[in-house]
Amino acid sequence: MTGGSTFGDFISAAHWHLDPANRAHGPAGGRGGAEEAARSLLRVVTVMRRYVDDMATAFDDVPSRTRRTLNPYARTWIQARQALASSAGYLRHHRPASRWPVSPAASPLARRLDGVTVSLATGRDLLQTHFAPGPRGTRQHRSEWAAVVSSPQATRALLAELASLGRQIARQGTDLALAGPSGAGGGQDERRRLNAACQWLWALDASVRAAHQREPVSDRDRELLRAIPVNARPPRRLPDRGDPVAALCQGVVDSAERVHHAAWLSATTESWFPGLTITSLRGVAEAATVTSHHCEVLLRSLAAWTSSPGPGGIRADLLAAADAAGRARQGWLRTAHALDGFITDMQQYSSPAALESRDLALWTGRLAYANPEWTLASGPGHAARPPEDLAQGPDDVRAVIAAVHHASHTLTRLAQADREQIRAAAGMGRILVPTRFLPDTFDIPRPFGHAPKDRVDPLLAVYQDTGQLSVETTAAVATVAEATRAPSQLLTTTSTAVDTNHDASYGDQTGGQDKMHGRDEVEVGRESRDMPGPVERTLLDLGVTSADVLQRGAEIDRASAQIIIDAAAGQTRDSRRTAPMLSRSAGTAELVNHVLASGDPRAVALLRRPVSVQREPPEPEP
Amino acid sequence: MLRTPVTIREATVTRISAVRDQVEQADGLPAVLDAACEAFEEMLSVIRGHEDPSDGWFTAFVMSGTCAANGRDAVLFAPSLPPNRLHPPPAGTMMPGQGSAETIADAIASLSGLLATGLARAAGSAADPRDREACQRAAGYARDMQGLLTGSGP
Q: What residues of B are in contact with residue A378 (Cβ under 8 Å)?
């Protein structure tokens, strides 16, 4: 979100290694030793198994009431585990002496696979930065992104990515395995095992595709997965005099991210946490009031800049968002007023959330006002930054909207976190009221008393209202972000994923339905077309170039695949001959591979798990 | 915000003046603490009635209000603070929005400066470290208020 490494970098790298157009590892389809490729494939499969094992914990993290949303993929997860275990079972006799290759592999395919292993292993490390080991093998969250990693959205997107990689590997691996003694090193048995291992990767792909049919992986799911950053906060920074608008916008985003994390941390700590002081609560309410005010100023300035008030323009949306920010400001102000009547058993400490919130108010103010030296202590009478100075083009508009979006989103989290903290602290008797200002008819010999429920409940209600107003502001700004394609659009998806995993205290932030994109269908369709079956391949080997003839060949291949699938699905388990038996010759193996590559989950009936799968321990991680 | 009649504006300033008199006349640590507590509470009440987002004082008032509440609470923790008020609350009911922002800000900034000085002096002479700490912290909040309302804050 803020320019650091994301999971998408590593998934993209893994795809890059497998891209046939990529010549960095040698020519696509270049031959090499089947044994070396099998060793490298085992490394890839081992990392993939780690990912799938992590998902088991992800399913545990999901509240039971939301598990129903995982059903299609929970089944797929079981099938994926079996498929990867089976694939590894055919390769296990190649267990490497060292976790990583001591020297670069000789064959292009092995080098590609080693590259995929490195990318996937590093990507998994990135995801793991959001977790810490918990008791009895559980995982503890170390950031709010952990809820995203465990979310159904990210889980199904990850399965889709693994399946996609598996599909590409299976194709290249079987090409090598079936190249024959002249093309591939290694004995016939070696190549047969490599082929069988790859067939199980097709099985993985088929199970994910079947789940995709029932519950498609949306573009937003994929974006969400790819956007997961490494768990590292941007460093604390204060604005410099003369920072340009772009730098100020980035400063707001970074600051908002720091506040967000501090709020998440405070919400996950115990109620005796010393950071819960009235000073901290007031500091947050004060900073949030001022930040909301600045958001309103900024949105009105942007509305003044835009010259298209018509239905296609964003001026009306900007003004609606500005109105919402104004209401949120009044909500935070009411919260500050409500806190005036309370104290806590500890006072002096200012929590990280309170200190960071003050920074956010400073950053948004420096962006909102014309004075390049504006601070929270600058006193009254500062003019807003002129619209033409705030935004000189659409990129500036997007940057400012993203900054406001991040700030609003963070204020929502703050309201939620402080409300939960007060509720917990009141239960512990940590919320007090001063008795000094009670009417004389109350003769209480102590300066403070525990806040009674009928005083705490209205305070919690004020926080609830303020949280709702902040949600509404965020939703209104999200509408503008969507319309302008601001870089903060993903915040909406992130919130949805987090809310799926946690009780949503406030309203819906989705701001619209996910737009489904048929990427998988498009890719799968292309994959099937790109991978010629035995007849089409023979025609190509004969040098046939006629599109009509090739098309007829492809139709025969599809028809034969369909006959085989139907026949396999109709047979009993005992009477069925499985792929390893069917794949004894290169000709039949190619036919079976083509059937498996069709993506029809029924084709998996042709496969048999290796005997060793149940008995052997998992491979060490590369 | 509607301009308030001169008579009402004067009434608000008069209430602040009454509290100021108590601060000036306070003698001895309990009396200083009592006057300070009343002053912070009164300033808080006045500030909260003048937080108008449409004028340029909004941020300064919001932040001053937090300082006033924190300053009051700091004094409340002083062991030498008398358990009951030494003086009745200022007469008259404060209406939201009474007085112009500038007038109110001037009066509160001036009272904050006086409080900061008085509390710092009291901290220097307090025997109980808890009184000393309470006075020092409250004096700090009073100084912050003065700075925020004069544009010379931290």
A: 151
